[in-house]
Amino acid sequence: MFWPLLALALLLLFDYLFTPGFFRLELRGGNLYGSRIDVLNQGARVMLVSLGMTLVIATGGVDLSVGTVMALAGTVAARLLVVDGYGFIAAVSGALGIALLAGAWNGVLVAYFNIQPIIATLILMVAGRGVAQLVSDGQIINFNDASMVFLGNGHFFRLPFTLTIVLFVFVGMWALTRQTAVGLFIEAVGDNPVASRYAGVNARLVTFLAYLLTGLCSGLAGLVASSNIKSADANHIGLYLELDAILAVVVGGTALTGGRFYLVNSLVGALLIQTLTTTMYARNISADIAPMPKALVIIAVCLLQSEKARRYLNQRFTRHQSAALPAITPSRAQP
Amino acid sequence: MKKLLPLLAFATVTMTLATGCGKKEAPDSTNATDAGGKKKLTLGFSQVGAESAWRTANSQNIKDEAAKNGVNLVFSDAQQKQENQIKALRSFVAQNVDVIAFSPVVETGWEPVLQEIKAAKIPVVLSDRSVDVSDPSLYASFIGADFVEEGRRAGKFLAEKTGGKATIVELVGTPGAAPAIDRAKGFREAIASHPDMKIVKSQSGDFTRAKGKEVMEAFLRAPDAGQITALFSHNDDMALGAIQAIEEAGRQPGKDIAIVSIDGVKGAFEAMKAGKLNCTVECNPLIGGQIMDLAQKLANHQEVPRRVVSQEGVFDQSKAEAELPSRKY
After folding, report:
1. Can you give the residue range of the structural domain that contains A309?
2. Which of A86, B164, B195, B303 is most deeply packed, by most CB within 10 A?
3. Residue A231 lies in a domain
4. How many CB atoms sit inside 10 A of residue B77's CB?
5. Ramachandran area for residue A125 (φ above 0: left; ψ -120 to 50: alpha; else beta)
6. Is residue A335 part of a domain?
7. How many angstroms separate the CA of residue B124 from the nearest CA in chain A?
């Protein structure tokens, strides 16, 4: 919990001191308005996806298809609304249905056919965009349905409505994994699948569930993403978002090898990534070189989380001070 | 992590293979003949992707014109990645097509693959975007808009519209892409003679609506955002995203902030009709017919001009309503 939060705090401090206007917050049309609100609103998509991704990574897997599932959900909703003339409820149900189907597909391949998660989800990642293109007929579909537009642009309690969605999903996930034994099962499967099976955990069902939930989260994120620009762009919704989501989870301290997972930390990780992006815009750093400072910050956070790297830094530091002092015992790795 | 690395490497390889070869829906090109027994022309076309309405109109037109002219078209979508495009070009050589045409994703890095194509004696037509190569014999002809001129026209319109006084923000296309470089250049040329026109911010919106909106939001949050009086967007889709951001910030697009963009897609004409966009400089995507013409001439070893400019115009709000019904894309 500590390191990603520290990195985020440091980044915000940097913005507070050196990025003019980043911390300005004002009421406009009854809603809060400012760079930090943009971070929350634009970051909602990565936050949603990273919640699901956390569970999948905790089982020792990974889901590369999340961006594609977003595109699928967005285009299906837009198509149902505009081309086929259905209402908002039907469109959203259709979109989330296809997202659940995609999650179930991944889950079955990984849990029941024992296909390596990277390969299993890669199939959908590549093929799914083609399906989305078919659904949208290769065109960008524009929509104006008030409810649909509200999803990604509306406000609730003066804050973007997307945050309500994130909060809702987070609370649901937290209740499911921490108030029931499901979270423990997921960690057990990720830590040692054999031992968990001997202990009587239905590893297959648990893994399947993780992919299914990730599909649902991605579907919601896709709805938010397309709603935000009032159009469904099959080629670009969620493009490369799987990388941001995996990054958010890893920065949040959940190991790619599976085991313990931290939902809140993934949210902090997602916010860190979006704050970096928005900082690049606000400081008018050219898009050609913007990935560089971003990469440096991410590397720094990952190094801070590595016990070895911290011990090395500690030693360097203490040696300079005094050789007589006993070496500082490095603290246990903090997630 | 140790276990994961080779896996990731494998994943990347499969992914590139999947996108590179997956599109090779190659009909047996060498034996294709038309009814008269004459050999049918095979054209390999590698498209940038489907990043905007303009591009999808361009792809559709090329497919339609190929069908109309009896050209056997091998079409490949590079999904905005140069490596995909290079693979597609190599596969065209392997399939021994008669003519290769492509819209390069970026301007640089084409020498090796173009050398291979030249060695295979296949003529190359560049469609809509140019490449930066030291040896001019690497391609036969370049057809498309003059991006520098488009930038100039956009700048000229804005200078007239604002009376030569404007604080401008710029939404740039994909970094390194020919239209992004040239439109920026032309625009700067046109406003150079107006000392009161200044570009204060310039960021890439990747030619997409989502990024255009996100970047414009960031522009509008800056403390000096109140001074912004004009927006120059390298394409219509980014401008349409930016219009949403401007409205959400409580300012009137087209009035508080004058907006000029390039492409001339249908959405832009609708926005102009609603008074939210001031001007779009047309960049005509319907160049399929001209490409087929060039390809046929090249296949018959006829001379072709090295530079073919497509037909274009400048549309402002007064012309938008009349033009809207005739917009196909």
Report:
1. 2-321
2. A86
3. yes
4. 23
5. alpha
6. no
7. 27
Q: Where are the beta strands (DSSP E) in chain B?
A: 42-47, 72-77, 99-102, 124-127, 141-144, 166-172, 197-204, 230-233, 258-263, 279-282, 307-309, 314-316
Is the Cβ pair A24, B223 closer than 8 Å?
yes
CA dihedral A152, A50, A297, B217 (to 10 degrees): 0
Touching check for A274 and chain B: CB below 8 Å?
A: no
The total domain count for chain A is: 1
* B296, B41 contact by CB (below 8 A): yes
CB of A279 within 8 Å of a chain B CB? The answer is no
- Check if A75 contacts B (Cβ < 8 Å): no
Mean pLDDT across chain B? 86
Q: Is the pTM of this model over 0.80?
A: no
Which of A139, A140, A287 is nearest residue B203 as measured by Cβ atoms? Answer: A287
Residue owning tokens 């889709």: B237
The residues, ordered by sequence, that sit 6+ positions from B142 with a Cβ below 8 Å of its Cβ are B125, B126, B130, B306, B307, B308
The rounded mean pLDDT for chain A is: 89
Are B91 and B275 in contact, with CB atoms under 8 Å apart? no
Residues B79-105 have pLDDT tens digits of 888 999 999 999 999 999 999 999 999
Domains of chain B: 4-143+286-309 (3.40.50.2300), 147-283 (3.40.50.2300)
A331 assigned to some structural domain: no
Per-residue pLDDT tens over the stretch A87-112: 999 999 999 999 999 999 999 999 99
Cα separation, A326 vs B178, whole angstroms: 61
Using pLDDT thresholds of 50, 70 and 90, give the confidence band for residue B47: very high
Count how many Cα atoms sit within 13 Å of the Cα of residue A266 in the half-sphere of its side chain.
30
The per-residue pLDDT for A26 is 82
3-state SS record for chain A? CHHHHHHHHHHHHHHHHHCCCCCCCEEECCEEECHHHHHHHHHHHHHHHHHHHHHHHHCCCCCCCHHHHHHHHHHHHHHHHHHCCCCHHHHHHHHHHHHHHHHHHHHHHHHHCCCCHHHHHHHHHHHHHHHHHHHHCCCCEECCCHHHHHHHHCEECCEEHHHHHHHHHHHHHHHHHHCCCHHHHHHHHHHCHHHHHHCCCCHHHHHHHHHHHHHHHHHHHHHHHHHHCCEECCCCCCCCHHHHHHHHHHHCCCCCCCCCCCHHHHHHHHHHHHHHHHHHHHCCCCCCCCHHHHHHHHHHHHHHHCHHHHHHHHHHHHHHHCCCCCCCCCCCCCC
Q: Are B158 and B258 in contact (CB under 8 A)?
A: yes
A85 lies in some domain? yes
Contacts B59 to A, Cβ<8 Å: 138
Q: Which residues pair with B307 in a beta bridge?
A: B142
Contact B108, B37 (CB under 8 A): no
Contacts across the A-B interface (CB distance below 8 Å)? 105
pLDDT above 50 (res B31): no
Element (H, E) at B25: none
Q: In this structure, what token pair is assigned to residue A301?
A: 């956070």
CATH at A260: 1.10.3470
Query: In whole angstroms, what separates CA A320 from the centre of its chain?
Result: 41
The edge-to-edge listing of strands for the beta sheet with B197-204 is: B197-204, B166-172, B230-233, B258-263, B279-282, B314-316
pLDDT band at A1 (very low <50, low <70, confident <90, very high): low
